[in-house]
Amino acid sequence: MSAPIVRPERTRLEPWVLRRAGARDEAGLRRHQLRALRATVRRAKESSRFYARRLHDVDPDGLADLAGVAGLPFTTADDVRSSGMDMLGVRQGEVERIVTLPTSGTTGDPKRIFFTAADQELTIDFFEHGMSVLVEPGDRVLILLPGERPGSVGDLLRRGLARMQVEGVVHGPVRDVCRTLAALEAGRFDAVVGIPVQVLGLARRSVAEGPAVRLKSVLLSTDHAPRSLVAAIEDAWGCRVFDHYGTTEMGLGGGVECEAHMGYHLREADLLFEVVDIESGAPVPDGHYGEVVFTTLTREAMPLIRYRTGDYSRFVPRPCPCGSWLRVLDTVRTRVAGRVRLKNGEMLDLAAIDEALFALPDVADCHVRLSEDRGTLSVEVLAASFRDRGVAQRDGLDALSRRAVAALEAVPAIGSAVRVGHLDLRATAGTAAWPGSDGTAKRMLKTSEHTEEPG
Ligand SMILES: [Zn+2]
Questions:
Q1: Model confidence band, residue 381 (pLDDT cutoffs 50, 70, 90)
Q2: Which CATH number is 337-430 given?
Q3: Do residues 428 and 400 lie in contact, with contact meaning Cβ atoms separated by under 8 Å?
Q4: How much is the average pLDDT of 185-214?
Q5: 245: CA distance to ligand 1 center in Å?
Q6: Residue 13 Cα, ligand 1 centroid: separation in angstroms?
Q7: C-alpha to C-alpha distance for 38 and 32, rounded to whole angstroms
Q8: Is the pLDDT reported for residue 113 higher than 70?
């Protein structure tokens, strides 16, 4: 583990958020959010066909305070799929970039998210200040995210880093662990930004091959980062690991951890976050879990008002130890749809499975499926370090799959379902990644009813 930080530095996002909001303190930020919320609703009604219909009865000046946001209707992934063009708040010629998110379901159009040049500028600005939490001028960062196209996440990150005199090298997602590891070793990098399971695979391979890599920090992005995975990366590279929360709909960036690692400080000048009850949609008090919902406050091309993210989290109900008054959204570890009830009534989610499996030293990834009748949990684990072929490998893989079963039986919800005969556990271990697993899609606990697209 990296040395514990006795006194976490106050997040550098705070002064940036205040500057972006033209505010001096928290009260000023909240006033900015209310003004920006009213302006967003007004502009959306005036300039977008979708919101003209959806917000027909809403008077933006009737929003007396921020709590009034709860009176506005939600928007959903289905709205974006079916009415994306109608959500446009600018002329098509002003759209600088369109990100198409494929759907893995058999029906439905892909989600298309639109950005103007000004929208992209806000993302670059966030990346610059968000990254200042973990790197310094003069550092070099290896970016393991898609970045070939102008305006892609890796490209915007590289441009944000350049503004703080940090060199970002866009490598792209890990397709070949050995090749990426060689690039990491040769490039004298101080930090890595990548997808959690991909960075774990790199870290575990790098330990197996010898202690060549030492890093200052790692930023995990794009998917949930289990605690056991974070600990394994910290162990392997002697680095600090930070988690970033962001989706394409949020404008690629949403928030980033500070040194206290309690959860994310958020882009509060540009995004208004809520947590709502999954069933009723009503706001829940701080400390209570629910679905994360956000409203864009400064987005031009495609304003999203009360967009339901499908992510499961809560606001941490106490001040951050870093000393900032910025809110803290707890680390997102699972999707709302990724929580399922087993036959014995216990709730199970991917986070619990992840914590158990990624704690096994040889696991680089796992793929989990629950049968439709919820009677069988099938798990494939990808081994990180079996490089020899033949009997030794086969024995090693058999042992690994047995260890995976034992680890899963130690998860309370799974263990109790297995003991009463309500759940069969099947685990296999292999050295080849399964088809379609390149780490760029969000990992899910899949049942046949839940075939959600990557968000
Ligand atoms: Zn903090």
A1: very high
A2: 3.30.300.30
A3: no
A4: 89
A5: 14
A6: 9
A7: 10
A8: yes
- How far is the centre of ligand 1, averaged over its atoms, from the C-alpha of 305 (Å)? 27
pTM: 0.91
Are residues 151 and 35 in contact, defined by beta-carbon separation less than 8 angstroms? no
The structure tokens listed for 393 are 């490998």
CA 246 / ligand 1 centre spacing (Å): 17
Cβ(74)–Cβ(293) below 8 Å: yes
Smallest CA-to-CA distance from 197 within 161, 230, 172, 149 is with 230
Which CATH code of 3.40.50.12780, 3.30.200.20, 3.30.420.40, 3.40.50.300 fits the domain covering 1-332? 3.40.50.12780
How large is the average pLDDT for residues 215-241?
Answer: 94
Q: What's at 85, amino acid-wise?
A: M
Rounded to the nearest 5 degrees, what angle is found at the Cα of 140, between the Cα atoms of 134 and 142? 90
Once rounded to an integer, what is the mean pLDDT over residues 116-144? 97
Q: How far is the CA of 254 from the centre of ligand 1 (A)?
A: 15
Q: How far is the CA of 320 from the centre of ligand 1 (A)?
A: 5
pLDDT class of 7 with cuts at 50, 70, 90: confident
Q: How much is the pLDDT for 365?
A: 87
pLDDT higher for 428 or 436?
428
Which DSSP string corresponds to 128-181? HHHHTTT--TT-EEEEES--SSTTSHHHHHHHHHHTTT-EEEE--S-S-HHHHH
Q: Cβ contacts of residue 452 below 8 Å, gap of 6+?
A: 104, 105, 310, 335, 337, 444
- pLDDT digit string (tens) for 332-374? 988 888 888 898 888 998 889 999 999 998 898 888 888 888 8
Ligand 1 center–CA 275 separation, angstroms: 19
Distance, in Å, from the CA atom of 455 to the CA atom of 453, rounded to the nearest integer, reads: 6
Domain spans in the chain, listed from the N-terminal domain onward: 1-332, 337-430
State the distance from the centre of ligand 1 to the C-alpha of 256, rounded, in angstroms: 9
Which pLDDT belongs to residue 4?
Answer: 55
Spacing, Cα 26 to ligand 1 middle (Å): 15
Take residue 412 and report the two structure tokens written for it: 């309370």
Distance 5 CA to ligand 1 centre (A): 13
The rounded Å distance from CA 265 to ligand 1 centre is 7
Cα of 203 vs centre of ligand 1, distance in Å, is 26
Q: How far apart are CA 198 and CA 440, in angstroms?
A: 9
Question: Among residues 80, 432, 74, which one has the least CA distance to residue 282?
Answer: 74
